[in-house]
Amino acid sequence: MTRAPTWEDTATDVRPALPAAEALACFARRQMEASAVPDSILEKTGELVVDQVGLQVGCADLPWSRAVHDYVVSFGARGPATVVAYGTEAHPEHAAFANATLQSTALLSWMVP
């Protein structure tokens, strides 16, 4: 009988990629220093962040948004991230899923009569 591989079994497969991932993260961080970004890009980024948060809050009461929030809450994992519209503390992956989904439900709210 063969046992299923565990995370520890596959961890060695991931480790060689870490130096490349770290190098990529350092590169990205250097590119995003405020002094390296044109003012027009910083201004547009600010507008997009305000738009994102507005859509999350504005769509929070839609049935499918509540369903996504309830799904995230069902995991019971609190973490350092926040589901913006609800103020719910969640694991970063769960919060990212909920925040992205709440924003995208704006499209559904325009499509559904």
Considering the chains and any ligands shown, give keywords for the structure.
single chain; 113 residues; mainly alpha; two-stranded antiparallel ribbon; flat
Strand line-up across the major sheet: 1-2
Helices and strands, in order, run as: HHHHEEH
Strand content: 5-15%
Q: What class do helices, strands and sheet pairing give?
A: mainly alpha
**Which bin fits the share of residues in helices?**
55-70%
Sheet with most strands: 2 strands, antiparallel
Low-confidence stretches: 6-15
CA distance, first residue to last residue:
55 Å
Shape: flat
How many E strands? 2
Q: What is the CA-atom radius of gyration, in angstroms?
A: 19 Å
Query: How large is the count of helical segments?
Result: 5
Mean pLDDT: 79
Describe, in plain words, how this protein is organized in 3D:
Strand 1 (81-83) and strand 2 form a beta hairpin. A two-stranded antiparallel sheet has the order 1-2. With 113 residues, the chain is mainly α. Helix content is 65%, strand content 5%. Helix 3 packs across helix 5 (92-111) and helix 4 (63-74) runs antiparallel to helix 5. The protein is flat, with a radius of gyration of 19 Å. It has a domain at 38-111.
